[in-house]
Amino acid sequence: MEKGALRQQVLWLVREKGPCSTSEVCAALREDREISVNAVQTVLNRLVDQGLLARTGSRRHYLYEAKPTEEAVKERASRAAVDLLSQSGELGLSHFVDTIDKIQPEAIETLERLLAKRRAKRHET
Questions:
Q1: 52-58 contact pairs (CB < 8 A, 24+)
Q2: Do 75 and 59 belong together in one domain?
Q3: Torsion region of 89: left, alpha or beta (phi above 0 gives left; psi -120 to 50 gives alpha)
Q4: Residues with Cβ < 8 Å from 11, sequence gap 6 or more?
Q5: Close Cβ partners of 48 (under 8 Å, ≥ 6 residues apart)
Q6: pTM more than 0.70
Q7: What residues of the chain score a pLDDT lower than 70?
Q8: Shared-domain flag, residues 31 and 55
Q9: Backbone phi, psi, residue 100, to 5°
Q10: φ, ψ (nearest 5 deg) of residue 49
């Protein structure tokens, strides 16, 4: 099997399994072929370097998890916004901002910048 196909298979396995270790990925791959732990580790490390996987934990106990694509994040955010506004309206929006301020205060400034850009864009048209 060519390298690109192995890379895709590893990426698919991690997306399907959720957070998993090198040995878990290796075991899943060994159902179809012979492969060394070192080969799997190399592919996982390259996927981390490319920004497609995130690695947590400590050496010898790493867990790998697929980073969500921009499309997946957009879809999740859109669903959350529709749910929040359709169920709670302005009150829900107010609590949303309060929650952002509690868990990540610097995100309020980012939100303000995004809103300013959106307003400017609306006034251009």
A1: 52/11, 53/11, 53/14, 56/19
A2: no
A3: left
A4: 47, 52, 53, 66
A5: 54, 55, 64
A6: no
A7: 1-3, 125
A8: yes
A9: -60, -45
A10: -60, -35
At 32, the amino acid letter reads: D
Q: At how many degrees (to 10) do helices 22-29 and 37-49 cross?
A: 120
- Stated length of the chain: 125
Structure tokens at 112: 């303000």
CB 44 within 8 A of CB 29: no
Residue 23 backbone dihedrals phi, psi, to 5 degrees: -65, -35
The whole-angstrom separation of Cα 68 and Cα 92 is 26
- In this structure, which amino acid lies at residue 17? K
Q: How many structural domains compose the chain?
A: 2
Structure token digits, residue 28? 């899943």
Neighbouring C-beta atoms of residue 32, cutoff 10 Å: 9
Residue-level pLDDT at 3: 59
Q: Which residue has the tokens 């999740």?
A: 76
Burial 49-69 (b: 16+ CB within 10 A, else e): eeebbeeeeeeeebbbebbee
Residues 106 and 74 in one domain: yes
Q: What letter represents residue 64's amino acid? A: Y
